[in-house]
Amino acid sequence: MSTRRLLGWALGGQASSFVVTLLGSIILARLLSPREMGVYAIAVATVGILSILSTAGPASYVIREKEMPELRLRTAMTITFGLNTLIAIAIFAVSFRAGPWLGDPGVGPVLQCLAIIPLIQIFEFRPAAMMQREMQFRASTTIATLTALLTSGGQVTLAWFGYSYMSMAYASLAAAVFSAVANNAVGRQHMGFRLSVDDWHPIAVFGARMLTISGVAALSWRICEVVLGKMLGLTALGLYSRASNISNMIFFNLYGTASRFAFTKLSKDYREHGSVAASFVMSLEIIVSVMWPLLAGGAILAGPIIVTMYGIKWVDAAPVLSLLLTSQIVVLAFGMNWELFVIHDEINRQTRFEAIRAVFGTTAFAIGCTFSISAAATGRIVEALFGLILYLPSMSALSGVASSRIFRLYARSGVLTVAACLPSAILMWAQNWDPRTPLPLCLGSVALGIALWLAALAVTRHPLIDEMRRFVRRGNKGEPQAAPVPRDYPLEMP
């Protein structure tokens, strides 16, 4: 199976999960209030803080290693079992004091429900990790799509019947059960529940390094949400989480899908050829040329997007959405750094970078929280710019791609972004940036932007235009299409 087909399938198929999640989010926002969303959001942030150990999980180790004998896989399962059990106990214990600490008695029951999910995820570890290692994206991503459908459908149904913020907790729990059962059914050849401690040291060392990288970033993010909820109130957190939800859906469903595929492909190329340059350039070129125009366009049309999707009661989330999408544009400028550092075993250096970035970002966000949620979101842009300064010099060395090549790639993507977003920018300027700008006008500007984006692809002779032509030719021959890469964020706000 070719790299182009795998990447094309992953990006194309992920649209189904995105649409399902987005529709569920729209309906849910019209059924629940910002404060109800804030109760669940602060519970999820608390779970994120207590689940910091999950970033040391050995799934990435299983995917990366050249050889994965049965005994080592059992040891990875043992570590997962221990970590998830500790996380579940911690969440359950904190739930009894969460109401007084976090400002609403409803937070406790939500945490008690969510505490069960880490225990369920133990049982899907082996089949899920091995299917990704073997690049069995069709099976694993079909499960992810069905899980998203169950989650969104359950949330909306339970909210309709009056379960308030608990509707999201109950639906997440049901989705976790389904995902575990489905992964074991489809990946039954990888099933196994026997434990071992043989050869545990390299897995533990790798996990400790991952904890200091991904764990620090995740901890910083969740602490910021708790700080916002405590300083500005749960209603403000609900508004922020609604904007953050949209930006995360875009980012994780597109960039998250592509980067998880890229990590698997980069790991495979490095194991077999000792070089990742070709795969890195291909992945980054496609990701940035699609994501930058999409994020910039969303930032420009944030007001109409929020009002159209969620209603006028959520209009204060529009500036936050615009700022968060802008910060993600900057983040993509040093995208796939995690994959490069892990593959080249440069985790210690990235640990230092992430620690510095986390402290700086949390401080910037907290300072913003003293003013407003928009100022807090501006802190995300400041953090992203600081991350760019830290990481950009390392990208060329680790990828084996000359800096000039990377900058040409960004320049070409910048041209595409300007072409795609110009009609929307002109429209919103003419409408005085009114969030009630009529939807037909917004859709017309988007359609014109897509046309200009395609024209810019052709004029700049962008490699993506050739990939699109190959994909269309394969589709005309009746070749099967693939499903999306699975999501790893079961507790994200719906």
* Class from helix and strand fractions: mainly alpha
Which parts are unreliable, with pLDDT below 50 for 5 consecutive residues or more?
478-493
> How many beta strands in the DSSP annotation?
0
Shape designation: globular
Distance between the termini: 34 Å
**Proportion of residues in helical segments:** over 70%
> What's the story with the biggest beta sheet?
none
* CA-based gyration radius: 22 Å
Q: Could you state the order of secondary-structure elements as H and E?
A: HHHHHHHHHHHHHHHHHHHHH
pLDDT averaged residue by residue = 84
Q: How many DSSP helices?
A: 21
Binned strand content:
under 5%
Summarize the structure.
This protein has 21 helices and no strands. The chain is mostly helical and 494 residues long.
Describe the structure.
With 494 residues, the chain is mostly helical. The protein is built from 21 helices and no strands. It has helices spanning 3-31, 34-50, 59-64, 70-95, 98-102, 107-114, 117-121, 125-133, 137-160, 166-186, 200-232, 234-273, 277-300, 302-310, 318-332, 337-343, 347-369, 373-399, 403-430, 439-459, 463-476. The protein is globular. The model is unreliable at 478-493 (pLDDT under 50).
Task: Jot down its keywords.
mainly alpha, 494 residues, single chain, disordered C terminus
What is the element layout, followed by pairings?
Blueprint: H1 3-31, H2 34-50, H3 59-64, H4 70-95, H5 98-102, H6 107-114, H7 117-121, H8 125-133, H9 137-160, H10 166-186, H11 200-232, H12 234-273, H13 277-300, H14 302-310, H15 318-332, H16 337-343, H17 347-369, H18 373-399, H19 403-430, H20 439-459, H21 463-476
